[in-house]
């Protein structure tokens, strides 16, 4: 077994850039003028809901306030689970009321490639005061965090399986996972299910080809509405593609044929049309959640090297004119502060967050040394 992934994540993460430009970055994601940008339709006619060729967004009236709460993984924090080096930390509320955090490529020692390679693995938390920082109550698998299902890494078909997002529907949890042969090269994706708050997982039989929707249904995020549907935003796993939208009945999550695309056709958006990008850009990890009567999307904006957030009324809202803010900027090593983080990615909403007090799990990996490679918790106020 190889000690590290076939393709290094350094080809996948944007390198740290000069701190001067980053430290001068404004606290608002886009100018207010962007909210008046005219949309473009395939017919050439203006429409408030048609596809738009350039990214935009309605900025809020004041800058958000962001601070680091704590490191969540690393020596002294997760080495007791034999997982000192890990990333992602996708959080979800379990059916029994705890939180479960889902991690990607994980190693025993505090360095990428540092022995006992596993993915995905998961930790539980009973934390109720997010401001004090998330702490761990146990690992899936026992004293040491075990890979959620058995497979050999770097086998002839694929190298690793990475979590994309996890959702709780009633008494069951569903994990969408990407099967990769080298990072950024998705072979297929699939859905796993747990009926005991994450303790055991089994394959639902749902598999999606990597070229589905032109390769835009690989890395996804999902949230359950109050109308019986789960809404899904997805993109490619190359950090250079836009996002599309689908929906599926909550009780049909493991049925690939039940996913219904949202697309622009004959001058209008409708369900059942071929999927049309709903927002252009270079999207990395995604997190879509219903929150406080609204919907929130947070994501790693690879093109601009930062984590952004959008607040919308519904998943079908016009994302070009929706309220948008930059939550955390990329930064340079040795020049980090509360809202500038070197080689950041991820950015998942932690359960218990509110629109005005948002907590995120954020990953970081120093690619030239292999450490830090960890998950951190950040708090953002004044977002919504």
TrEMBL record:
InterPro entries per record: DUF4185, TAT_signal
Origin organism lineage: Bacteria, Bacillati, Actinomycetota, Actinomycetes, Propionibacteriales
Source taxon at top rank: Bacteria
Signal peptide: 1-24
Keywords tagged on the record: Signal
Name by which UniProt lists this protein: Uncharacterized protein DUF4185
Keyword Signal included in the entry's annotation: yes
Domain DUF4185 intervals: 75-379
């Amino acid at each position: 077994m190889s000690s590290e992934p076939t393709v290094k994540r350094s080809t996948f993460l944007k390198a740290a850039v000069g701190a001067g430009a980053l430290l001068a970055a404004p606290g608002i994601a886009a100018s207010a003028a962007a909210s008046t940008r005219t949309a473009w339709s395939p017919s050439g006619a203006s429409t408030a809901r048609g596809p738009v060729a350039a990214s935009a967004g309605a900025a809020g009236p004041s800058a958000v306030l962001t601070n680091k709460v704590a490191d969540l993984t690393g020596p002294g924090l997760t080495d007791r689970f034999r997982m000192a080096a890990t990333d992602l930390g996708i959080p979800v509320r379990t059916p029994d009321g705890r939180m479960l955090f889902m991690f990607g490529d994980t190693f025993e020692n505090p360095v990428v490639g540092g022995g006992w390679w596993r993915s995905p693995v998961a930790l539980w938390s009973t934390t109720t005061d997010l401001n004090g920082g998330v702490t761990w109550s146990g690992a899936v698998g026992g004293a040491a965090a075990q890979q959620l299902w058995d497979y050999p890494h770097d086998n002839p078909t694929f190298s690793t399986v990475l979590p994309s997002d996890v959702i709780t529907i009633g008494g069951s949890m569903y994990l969408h996972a990407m099967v990769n042969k080298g990072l950024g090269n998705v072979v297929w994706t699939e859905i796993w299910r747990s009926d005991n708050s994450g303790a055991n997982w089994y394959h639902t039989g749902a598999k999606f080809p990597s070229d589905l929707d032109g390769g835009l249904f690989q890395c996804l995020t999902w949230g359950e509405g109050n109308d019986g549907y789960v809404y899904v935003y997805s993109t490619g796993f190359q950090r250079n593609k836009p996002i599309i939208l689908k929906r599926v009945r909550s009780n049909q999550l493991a049925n690939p044929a039940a996913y219904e695309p949202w697309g622009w056709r004959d001058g209008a958006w409708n369900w059942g049309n071929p999927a049309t990008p709903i927002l252009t850009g270079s999207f990395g990890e995604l997190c879509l959640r219903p929150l406080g009567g609204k919907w929130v999307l947070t994501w790693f904006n690879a093109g601009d090297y930062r984590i952004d957030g959008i607040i919308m009324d519904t998943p079908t809202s016009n994302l070009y004119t929706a309220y948008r803010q930059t939550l955390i900027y990329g930064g340079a090593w040795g020049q980090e502060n509360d809202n500038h983080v070197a080689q950041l990615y991820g950015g998942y909403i932690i359960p218990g967050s509110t629109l005005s007090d948002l907590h995120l799990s954020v990953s970081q990996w120093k690619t030239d040394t292999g450490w830090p490679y960890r998950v951190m918790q950040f708090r953002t106020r004044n977002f919504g």
